[in-house]
Amino acid sequence: MPGPIGAFVAYWNSLPKTGHLPQLSDFFDSMPPDLAPYMAVCDIYGPDKTKIRFFGTQLVESAAFDPTGMSVADLYDETLRPQVHGMLWACSQRPVGYLSRRKIIGRSGFVNVHPSVGLPIEIPTSGVRAVVNFSRASGGRSHVAEDRAYLVQEMKLERWIDLGAGAP
Fold first, then answer.
1. Cβ proximity of 147 and 130 under 8 Å
2. CATH architecture of the region 3-162
3. What is the Cα–Cα distance from 128 to 78, expressed in whole angstroms?
4. pLDDT tens digit string along 59-87?
5. What value does the mean pLDDT take over residues 109-136?
């Protein structure tokens, strides 16, 4: 995987692991500063229960709001929510990574495409697993609040990333 997504995966791979997963504390302790603004951390409590723990500054700027504390489902069109929750649940439980592509279309018709990678991570103090997601929009322009489309209208799982436990 070339480019920023490849750099994010290489960083995740470089961390010490218990089993197949690094711990969130190790992840944040040495996070390269050029990657952090494009990262989100989602806590996974169950097959359809999630919460956004962290949303990087560039993601906030692109979205024109900060969804920290919200359910991941709140960011997606209702028809996509089962797919998104299923992907996050598989990622956290197997564990397995994923490559995906999200499309957000603003009210003015501006299209923002977000290629992304998600990788599972352990949070031993909380008893839950999480998924760290790295996403850089292919468009160079952020949505302004007036143009913002609140929901992701399209999402495509491009492929699973086998982390040693097999892929779905």
1. no
2. 2-Layer Sandwich (3.30)
3. 25
4. 888 777 899 999 988 888 888 999 999 99
5. 87
